[in-house]
Design a protein that fits this description.
The protein is of the alpha/beta class. It contains twelve helices and 16 strands. It has a nine-stranded mixed sheet with strand order 11-10-9-8-12-6-13-16-15, sandwiched between helices. The chain has a five-stranded mixed sheet with strand order 2-1-3-4-5. Strand 8 (184-188), helix 8 (189-195) and strand 9 form a beta-alpha-beta unit.
Length: 361
């Protein structure tokens, strides 16, 4: 199973919107087939492992990180292929939360006389591997992570010169890993105008789908000269309100930018509608990298599921430096947005990151 989990990880950013899956065929004391799934490769991990094993699969044991599928999607059911190959036992790390599978894969194997075992000691690791997929299947919406880089006193920007970085190069490299594992990245027009970012995946690793860059821009102020627009390759979505001018919309669309309208409260873009739209586009994981106002808006409306906060050993102080989450905020400590399942990530020598889930009331 360790081998299968390692194989599954090779599908990071290559399998989405499908889950990462690894499979190993074992005959006697040796491995005779290995496989992992990629979206472009089409074939599921089990099929690749069975094909490599060939006739040696008959009477062998299949180790797989996720319950084999029992329905026809882009490919025929893996359960049918496992039965046809003559596998005698299937050992899995986790059930599949997809309602189209969810126990039916195991049931089909058992009906065919194949022994099934679930290694519960690997279940948490297998679910963590496909955290976004499991969340999407259970909540029917993308996993939304809010990422921010802060000083120790919770500031993300100084009132004047903001050249340079808050965190180190090592911490920023870790952020690229988060981007690589995400399907979409969201920022606000304020950040787009002040930082002129690219918001690209610079991890250097391959991905099946381009990282979808999303800008919340109520009145379509994003300049055609911005690096976001200049680098568009079918991967830029700008979300506005009906107050935006048609002329600006046409100008962006003529540059290859996709523009959508989602009216929300107080003349702002409705962030929840944006998340729903991204879910319909099969974006399983969405990361917010935005400024103080957008961060609070996303938290306040309940769109955020997790936070990933990077802390640098610095203090800005002052009342004019921007906090991670601005806006109106909560008026009473008792009403604070609460976090749970907190994990601390050390970033040597002096930085750290806090990963935590937002408690849903």
């Amino acid at each position: 199973m360790r081998e299968a989990l390692g194989l599954a990880r090779r599908g990071l950013a290559l399998a989405s919107p499908n889950p990462m899956v690894g499979a190993v065929v074992v005959r006697g004391d040796g491995i005779v087939g290995r496989g992992f799934h990629t979206w472009d490769g089409l074939k599921h991990a089990e099929i690749i492992a069975l094909e490599e094993a060939g006739n040696l699969a008959r009477g062998a044991t299949l180790y797989v990180t996720l319950e084999p599928c029992s329905h026809t999607g882009r490919t025929p059911p893996c359960v049918d292929a496992i039965v046809a190959a003559g596998i005698s036992k299937v050992v899995a790390a986790s059930h599949d939360p997809n309602p189209l599978v969810s126990g039916q894969g195991f049931a089909g194997l058992i009906r065919a006389g194949i022994a099934v075992e679930v290694l519960t000691e690997f279940q948490a690791e297998a679910e963590q591997l496909n955290e976004a997929f499991f969340h999407f299947m259970r909540a029917r919406k993308p996993l939304v992570t809010l990422k921010s880089a802060l000083t120790l006193d919770g500031k993300i920007a100084a009132p004047q010169d903001n050249t340079g970085w808050i965190t180190s190069e090592r911490a920023r490299a870790h952020v690229q890993e988060l981007r690589h594992a995400s399907d979409a990245i969201v920022t606000g027009i304020g950040t787009a105008l002040s930082d002129n970012p690219l918001l690209t995946d610079r991890s250097g690793f391959a991905r099946a789908r381009p990282l979808l860059r999303v800008v919340l821009d109520s009145t379509l102020r994003l300049p055609a000269e911005s690096r976001l627009v200049q680098s568009v390759l079918g991967d830029l979505l700008v979300v506005a309100t009906s107050a935006a001018s048609q002329e600006r919309r046409r100008a962006l669309e003529n540059r290859g930018v996709e523009v959508k309208i989602f009216d929300g409260p107080r003349g702002r873009v409705d962030i929840r509608d944006v998340i729903t739209f991204l879910g319909a586009r099969r974006c399983l994981s969405v990361m917010f990298e935005a400024g103080s106002k957008v961060n609070w808006a996303a938290l306040e409306c309940g769109a955020v599921d997790k936070v990933f906060l990077y802390y640098a050993p610095k203090i800005l102080g002052g009342l004019e430096s921007l906090p991670m989450a601005g806006g109106v905020g909560r008026m009473r400590r008792a009403d604070a947005i609460r976090l749970e399942r907190t994990t601390l990530h050390q970033i040597p020598p002096d930085e750290f990151a806090v990963e935590a889930w937002v408690r849903k009331e």
